[in-house]
Amino acid sequence: MLKPEKILTLRQEAEKKLADFATQKGSVVHDLQNWLSKKYADEVMHELQIHQIELELQNEQLRQAQILLEESRDRYFDLYEFAPIGYFTLTTDCVISTCNLTGMQLLGISDKSKLVSRRFANFITPEDLERWNVYFLRAKQQSEKQNQNIELTIKRVDNTLFKARLDTRFDTQNLMRVAVINLTER
């Protein structure tokens, strides 16, 4: 096996011989080099054009995939926001991190920013608060293992009450997903 320095020396010798050969043969070698250079340039240009077309096709496919993703996102956004039940995401401290429009309406709040970062327990009636706290801790310990549910009385911001069923589950990010169904309207 040749050592790297030996390979470098062989290359340098070969380049020197080629230069000597080109000097000896003069214009014939020069013409041959020009012909080879043009042929190589044509091949490289062809490959670059093919690569450019491939990139344009890939770009078009990415645009189409982006359009499909945006349409899918919009469908799921509508499905989430306009669902007939309230959806909430609670942190492990029982703080509301997200909710849908129905959830906001159930609690009597029209501005999402006034609901996010509030404790969900603030909307539970004092009579059911202890049950909620025990339920929340038990559900948190169960984590992703199973869905949990409880029926409670919820208090809107205008102090009106409604009976609700809460179906909950902790997700992989340790956030509690809560579906709230108004039982009073049934």
Unreliable parts: none
H/E topology pattern: HHEEHHEEE
Helix amount? 40-55%
Structural class by helix and strand composition: alpha+beta
CATH architecture of the largest domain: 2-Layer Sandwich
End-to-end Cα distance: 85 Å
The fold-level CATH name of the largest domain is Beta-Lactamase
Evaluate the radius of gyration: 35 Å
Strand content: 15-25%
Main beta sheet, described?
Answer: 5 strands, antiparallel
| Tertiary shape | elongated
How many distinct domains? 2
Overall pLDDT: 84
Strand order of the largest sheet: 2-1-5-4-3
Report on this structure:
- The longest helix is centred in the first third of the chain and has 55 residues, at 27-81.
- This protein has two domains: 4-78, no CATH class; 82-182, 2-Layer Sandwich (Beta-Lactamase).
- The protein contains four helices and five strands; from the N terminus they run H-H-E-E-H-H-E-E-E.
- With 186 residues, the chain is of the alpha+beta class.
- The chain has a five-stranded antiparallel β-sheet with strand order 2-1-5-4-3.
- Strand 3 and strand 4 form a beta hairpin.
- The chain has helices at residues 4-25, 27-81, 101-107, 126-142; strands at 86-90, 96-99, 148-155, 161-170, 176-182.
